[in-house]
Input
Amino acid sequence: MSSTLTLDAQPRTVAVVSWKTPIILAVMTVLFALLPLLVPRPGDATFRLSGGGELFALPNLVVPGTATAWIAVAIAAVLTAVAFVLSARRIRVPMWLTAVYIIALVFGFLAWAAAGSSGTLPVVGLLGGALALATPLIFGALGGVIGERAGVVNIAIEAQLLAGAFTAALVGSLTNSPWAGLIAAMAAGVLVSLVLAVFAITYYVNQVIVGVVLNVLVIGLTTFLFRQVLAPNQETLNTVTPFKAIPIPLLSEIPILGPILFRQTIVVYLMYIVVFVVWFGMYRTRWGLRMRAVGEHPQAADTVGIKVARTRYMNVLIAGAIAGMGGAFYTLVSVPRFNPEMTAGAGFIALAAVIFGKWDPIKATLAALLFGFATNLQGVLSVIGSPVPSQFMLMLPYIVTIFAVAGLVGRSRPPAASGIPYIKS
Output
């Protein structure tokens, strides 16, 4: 006699209608309206839409800065009113409305910030740089999603990224092969995850504490090894041959999207594949079914024959390998050498993306892209001479995350058994 465990391919959601979303949209609209009202920007904003090399180059887009900002405010106000009407009728505010709202505000803000500046706003450079900054965050966020879906809180994403970056630099330098460095980075991520799994799954140690300790341990260890080993032997042990960008024929020549998406290195292309594989595997395969089962109700999973500890071990190790790939991006793509603490807290940003994305691989990827966009935007605006303080742009993703957790993108609930050790009775 055998029992079977049945879960829906897609996670079920309960339509809970509240006033959080329209209220937050209204607050954001009012705050944004204060920009052109209190600090009107004279002049036009110029958007450069071509990155160079496309078959069909697009002309620059010139718009009046302050007027465009007010148009964005008007669009946001209309969408906010629609959100209030839907909530009054007890209809959930659709995701497309929030997406259009964000696009309108972002475009209006860019027009206002770039108005009267000495340079043009490079759209391709802005979005391409955002993708580059978001790539390690996406790998880290996917590792966090897999771990927590299996019931293990992965606070050690920072340690996995940093260990991957260090190992990729060392092995890549010794072998003069970026591929060897990439594989070594994945192995380093798995090793860090193994330590997390042993303490969290086998010995039932508090998972948050283990993650924090691993972060401190790896930071100290890599800094010590850098000073004692890499720095004295910089040319032989810390000089990496990085991956080169590989333009995809035809696709790379598509206006705007081509230079952004299809003139990337192999690590970015692997990121595209990993995002799809994790999403497909999580909701369309037995692996994903069992992973979600032990993360939501390990007792029920155990009763139908799923080995909870083994399933959690396997998924935590897979998560470590993916996060290790993100660490390799730093030394095999961004900077061809290792520097102490070069991840600069990216693991914690990836953890925020996991929460923002509601523990879903696609939504977590979009959240990581938002963080990368905001980080790159502050650099671009400073180059073109915008008066917007860079500190404001750096804190923007965290403000958005707070709004998201408060209800802008719906209720954010982690897997029921996440962080709870399973002790078989």
Notes: The first helix runs from residue 20 to 38.
